[in-house]
């Protein structure tokens, strides 16, 4: 089959690779109909997560049709049109029973790597380095999906592929941030980052009853998408003092909930940006946490900060004093998609959650290298490149 | 020695280095990396109980130890105790005497596989799976060495 593989720092190649096979009883094989780039892929591509092997198949946000079913699969049939969560979870361990699926104890066959880095191992993820299990990703004609009864969801007839695709990861990640940050009716929520995840965090906050929702970014086309398709207000951080703006718009309090949806390659302005870029390039810090810093500083006293962006290691100039003295709740997670996908599909079916606008560039899988170039450079207003493995 | 042999030698060494790096990862002490306390001396570290919490009834776990743990036989002591807060059973084991690093790795892998068998019914298999061309480079070999060692390493 054809698949998009990582071939070096910022290099992607589409090549012929072996087909996947059922390896465990609870696996299915999926014929991938749509698979999309995600901002967190850029950390892998750029070599910031040093556990990628040349030849690894990329991709973790996808949907398709079940074409083969393992003997232990109960609820999926050949022909089912399903969307698949990016994290691989068994459904049986204590973490899965608490609906903390990305923390599954049995989903990552390489726990020694992440235990060494972080003290404990999270679950595994498709196409997300050997630290996260080394699973082949979804930018391919076919993909093996372990624990299929837990991580795949049949898409309702009235939801199109173009919409359902993003229930896989972007919407479920955004929804998780808004939910686990404790968004309540009447809250003010600020989201840093107007990519797919940030937009969906904002939309989820609105659906959870937030009264005011602001999205912070610098890219005009993404801010326009927020206005048009999400219905939130926007702040351009390249021209506006974000903290002053938020204070002004919230009666001096600051947002109740601050959601960071940017990750380890955040951009900022002025000296801070230069400082973080230099330290990261010299490997004196692994991540650039400028959006997290600002979220902590902007948040109201006793508020909640949720880190949705992907980080890998220690960061510098973390405002722990602000977090402690303001009594903040700080939480983060990789996506517990299985917890949210059913309700997301219901919202999609009712037309309350639309995502088609995120797919700004749809192309054959053969063009994946070009798609990633556009996505990385945000060329031509690229928010997400979506690949069609079967044309 | 020609270039290919040199690359082959470097690649082989790198694979071992990757596994060795992983072994030491949890003890890396650079500012901001985590551990603030003293570390165990190697003998005490090797003799510690190693434990996984399994979401199964403790009596059920005690009644029939999974094959990977049972295979270690009398070389290890095994302890099963109820986990607090309805979390199931704490399944712990340690070697009698002072084990080698290899034996500790065997025990980590056995405990992880036992947990998977008890909770899931099978252990995730990873090979074969699709991948593109893999050039024989020292970096790649180091990562493969680390990944191959990963089920037997970590803080368990």
TrEMBL record, chain A:
Instruction: Quote one Gene Ontology molecular function term.
Output: zinc ion binding
Cofactor list: Zn(2+)
Q: Which residues form the Alcohol dehydrogenase-like C-terminal domain?
A: 196-266
Q: Which residues form the Alcohol dehydrogenase-like N-terminal domain?
A: 25-149
Instruction: Give the InterPro entries listed for this entry.
Output: ADH-like_C (IPR013149), ADH-like_N (IPR013154), ADH_Zn_CS (IPR002328), GroES-like_sf (IPR011032), NAD(P)-bd_dom_sf (IPR036291)
Q: Which UniProt keywords apply?
A: Metal-binding, Oxidoreductase, Zinc
**Taxonomically, which superkingdom?**
Bacteria
Q: Does the keyword Metal-binding apply?
A: yes
What's the short name of a Pfam family annotated to this entry? ADH_N
Signal sequence range? none
Q: Where are the transmembrane segments?
A: none
Enumerate the CDD domains for this protein: FDH_like_1
| Protein family | Belongs to the zinc-containing alcohol dehydrogenase family.
Family annotation (PANTHER family)? DEHYDROGENASE, ZINC-CONTAINING, PUTATIVE (AFU_ORTHOLOGUE AFUA_2G02810)-RELATED, ZINC-TYPE ALCOHOL DEHYDROGENASE-LIKE
- The identity of this protein, by name, is Threonine dehydrogenase
- Specify the species: Geodermatophilus obscurus
From TrEMBL, chain B:
Give the Low complexity compositional bias ranges.
135-150
Q: Where is the region Disordered? A: 128-156
Q: In terms of domain of life, where is this protein from?
A: Bacteria
Entry protein name:
Uncharacterized protein
């Amino acid at each position: 089959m054809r698949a998009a593989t990582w071939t070096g720092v910022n290099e992607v190649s589409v090549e012929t690779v072996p087909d996947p096979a059922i390896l465990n009883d609870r696996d299915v094989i999926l014929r991938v109909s749509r698979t999309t780039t995600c901002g967190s892929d850029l950390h892998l591509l750029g070599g910031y997560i040093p556990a990628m092997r040349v030849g690894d198949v990329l991709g973790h946000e996808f949907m398709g049709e079940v074409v083969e079913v393992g003997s232990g699969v109960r609820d999926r049939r050949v022909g089912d049109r399903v969307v698949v969560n990016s994290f691989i979870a068994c459904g049986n361990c204590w973490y899965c029973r608490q609906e903390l699926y990305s923390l599954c104890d049995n989903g990552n066959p390489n726990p020694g790597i992440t235990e060494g880095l972080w003290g404990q191992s999270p679950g595994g993820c498709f196409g997300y380095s050997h630290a996260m299990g080394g699973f082949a990703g979804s930018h391919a004609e076919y993909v093996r999906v372990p624990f299929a009864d837990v991580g795949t969801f049949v898409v309702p007839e009235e939801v199109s592929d173009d919409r359902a695709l993003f229930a896989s990861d972007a919407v479920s990640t955004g929804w998780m941030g808004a939910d686990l940050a404790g968004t309540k009716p009447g809250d003010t929520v600020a989201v840093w980052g107007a990519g797919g995840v940030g937009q969906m965090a904002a939309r989820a906050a609105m659906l959870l009853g937030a009264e005011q929702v602001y999205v912070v970014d610098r890219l005009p086309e993404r801010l326009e998408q927020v206005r048009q398709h999400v219905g939130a207000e926007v702040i351009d951080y390249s021209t506006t003092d974000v903290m002053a703006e938020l204070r002004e718009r919230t009666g001096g309090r600051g947002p109740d909930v601050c959601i960071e949806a940017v990750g380890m390659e955040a951009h900022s302005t002025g000296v801070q940006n230069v400082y973080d870029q230099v330290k990261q390039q010299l490997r004196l810090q692994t991540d650039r946490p400028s959006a997290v810093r600002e979220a902590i500083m902007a948040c109201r006293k006793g508020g909640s900060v949720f880190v949705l962006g992907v980080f890998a290691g220690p960061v510098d100039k973390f405002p722990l004093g602000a977090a402690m003295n303001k009594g903040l709740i700080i939480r983060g997670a990789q996506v517990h998609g299985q917890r949210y996908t059913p309700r997301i599909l219901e919202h999609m079916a009712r037309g309350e959650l639309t995502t088609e606008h995120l797919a700004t560039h749809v192309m054959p899988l053969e063009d994946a290298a070009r798609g990633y170039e556009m996505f990385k450079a945000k060329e031509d207003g690229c928010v997400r490149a979506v690949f069609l493995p079967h044309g | 020695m020609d270039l290919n042999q040199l690359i082959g030698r470097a690649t082989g060494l790198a694979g071992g280095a990757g596994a060795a790096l992983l072994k030491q990862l949890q003890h890396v002490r650079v500012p901001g990396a985590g551990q603030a306390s003293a570390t165990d001396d190697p003998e005490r570290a090797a003799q510690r109980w190693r434990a996984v919490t399994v979401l199964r009834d403790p009596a059920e776990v005690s009644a029939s130890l999974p094959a990977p743990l049972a295979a270690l036989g009398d070389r290890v002591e095994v302890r099963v105790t109820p986990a607090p807060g309805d979390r199931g059973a704490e399944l712990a084991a340690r070697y009698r005497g002072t084990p080698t690093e290899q034996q500790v790795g065997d025990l980590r892998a056995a405990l992880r596989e036992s947990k998977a068998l008890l909770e899931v019914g099978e252990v995730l298999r990873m090979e074969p799976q699709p991948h593109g061309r893999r050039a024989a480079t020292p970096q790649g070999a180091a990562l493969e060495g680390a990944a191959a060692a990963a089920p037997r390493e970590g803080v368990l």
